[in-house]
Structure formats: structure tokens, C-alpha cells
Amino acid sequence: MSKKKILFAAYSLDVGGIEISLVNLLKNINYKKYSVTLALEKKIGIFLDELPKEINVIEYKVSQNKVLIIRKFINFYKQLRWKFQYKNYYDCSISYATYSKPCSFLARASSKNSILFVHSNYCQLYNDDILVKKFFNGIMINKFKSIIFVSNEAKKDLCDVYEIANKSFVINNLVDYDRIIKLSKIDVNLDLRYAKNFVFVGRLDESSKKVSRIMEVAKKCKDKKIDVGFWIIGDGPDLELYIDLKEKYKLDNVIFYGKQKNPYPYIKNADYLILTSSYEGFPVVYNEAIALQKPILTTIDVSDDFISIPNRFGIIAKHNVDDIFDKVIYLLNNGFVIKEKVNFKSINNSRIKNIEEIMEYKND
Fold it and tell me: How many CB atoms lie within 10 A of CB 353?
């Protein structure tokens, strides 16, 4: 029996939640059933060497020419070449990077069974139906046969804007539990001056992650002489903004550890995970913290196909510094014990089965 041909399209395999979740998914594909091609806009990233050897990795690099008419001509020519070679060539094609127009094109052009992954709640990001439609019309959401969301909230909100409920599913990211546990045991240099420590892991982008809230909470803790530290793991466009805040407020209790391929020892050795985002889908780092039995303090109350955070795995704070600070104090005074352990092996099996069912929808 011949293998079904599957195409995944993504931006790159550098550090990030989407990239980690994609690699975890690709590790769980049954390569006896599927022949997989991964098309990257940029064939770069520290996770390239972790891909299963069965995957054919190619690069679909769009032109960045500064002259608009030249750039458009080159990219139009690339699209024509792709269609000539791969139009409906695959049994299923998946745009894994929600925000990427090139990935959207590759998925829509390469099979009749095209799938769009939605990794964030764009309705919360834009907070305006007109802007939401502008974004999703740009990637031609209505042309996709199926849409997979990573949280119930993201699905519900977008289904209020588009009539897509009949082709929408909630399937969260797969979790490489054994790898997380193994890598968490690696020794790293840690600043353990403080009695308790909160760790943030993610992209340093103020528009979404609002790490400035952590800096302000750290300042309150410093001013009140509270024995607590804040570890920042990651990199991004607003790193300098946060470094400037650290220097401005003289925050010895904030420690930057930079971009880490392996953030798990930091999560394991911290007391709590903290996220102060303005919007999210279902953050990959939630699953990583749960795997390492670390309680979560977050401003994002989301649920996926198996997991919800409040009371089970952490507590929710309002979107303001005062309430986040109050919740930090609550945790320092009262603690939080995770009383259940998630069977990620069983969950992964269920998720990959659901994804395979969608990948094998019969073409029209």
C-alpha cells in the first residue's frame, strides 16, 4: 500500500512554542503510513537536527527585494512554479504558521485537503472584527477544508466572526513528556539568592507577552523587601526595553538567562511559572510546566481538549500589575500544590489519532 503524501508548511525551526509543538507533532507521525515533506520559509533553526530522518525538508524562500514591483514579480513567479509542480500533488497539506501568507498559499495550492492551524486567539489580539477579518481574509481562511485550534476559547471567538464551526476542531499540541523530564535534569547555573523564584519562558514581545508587568511586579517586591526572584528565559524585539526597566528600577531580583534551547531545568528549579500575556492560544509552556509539576500564575484563562488551568494547575490573575502582585503574594504565603498528574502518553495518542483522521478526510 502506497504512503499518503503530507505537506507541512512553517516559517522556521528556531526557538518558539509553535516550533516546539511542530517538532513534537512530526515525531509522532506514523512514517509507515505517511511520506512527509516540511516546507520552511527559512530553513534555519536549532530544532532542525531533531526532526525525524524520514522527513524531506525543503525551503520555499520568498523574495524580500526592496523594490515592490520586483518583489511581487519574483514571488508571483515562485507561486506559478510551485503550482505547476505541486498543485494537488499531496493528499493533505497543512499551514502550521497561522500568520504566514506563504505557508497559507503552499497549503491551499498543494492539496484539496488543506488544514490551517490557529495557535493564538486573534480575536483578543485585534479586539475588532474588522481587523480580525482583514488578517484571516489575508490568509484566505475560507479556502481551507479544516481548521485546528489549540484552545476552546480561540475556536469559539473566531467562529463568532466566521461561519466555520462545521470544519473547526480543538486539538492541543503534543507533549514530549519523556524529553522534558530528561532535559530538566541537566545542570545549569542558577541565581538562587531568593527564597522563591518565578520563571517566565517565551518571546520577549511586549505587544503580546507584556513582560513589563513582571518588571513592575518585581519592583513592588523589591520596594517591599519581599524575598522573591524573577527569571526571564527568552529573546525577542523588546529585550532592550526590559533590560532598561531592570536598570531603571535597579532590579537585582530580575535575572535574564537569554534564549535557551532547553528551558526545562529553569522551569524545574523555579517555584512557579508566570505568564502575564494580553492574549494567547494555549501556550506550549503550560504543558511543559504541568509535566514538571510546576504551578502556573497566568493572566490567560484558556482550556484545550484535556486541560484547564484554574484551581487544577494554577491561578488566574487579572490584566493589571496590582492583581498580579497580589497573586504573587498569595502564592508566596499559601503555596499551591498540583494534586493530579496528566497522562501525556494517553493524551498524545488521542491527539495524533484525531489529527490523522482530519488528514485523511476524503477529497471532494
Answer: 10
Dihedral Cα 274, 12, 239, 121, nearest 10 deg? -50
| In contact, 313 and 295? CB cutoff 8 Å | yes
Identify whether the C-beta of residue 304 lies closer than 8 Å to the C-beta of residue 268.
Answer: no
| CATH number for domain 4-170, candidates 2.40.128.120, 3.30.360.10, 3.90.79.10, 3.40.50.2000 | 3.40.50.2000
201 backbone dihedrals φ, ψ, rounded to 5°: -130, 120
pLDDT one-digit tens code per residue, 149-192? 999 999 999 999 999 999 999 999 999 999 999 999 999 999 99
Q: What are phi and psi of 16, to 5 degrees?
A: 165, 160
- The C-alpha angle with vertex 159 and arms to 157 and 162, in degrees rounded to 5, equals 120
In this predicted structure, the answer to whether residue 362 has a pLDDT above a threshold of 80 is: no
The share of the chain scoring above pLDDT 90, in percent, equals 88
- C-alpha cell at position 59: 525551503
- pLDDT above 70 for 363: no
> What CA–CA distance (Å, rounded) separates 10 from 30?
20
Half-sphere exposure of 281 (CA within 13 A, CB side): 25
56-59/196-201 β-pairing: unpaired
Taking the CB of residue 302, how many other CB atoms lie within 10 A of it?
22
Please write the tens of the pLDDT for every residue from 130-148: 999 999 999 999 999 999 9
pLDDT at 201: 96
Task: Give domain limits for the chain.
Answer: 4-170, 177-334
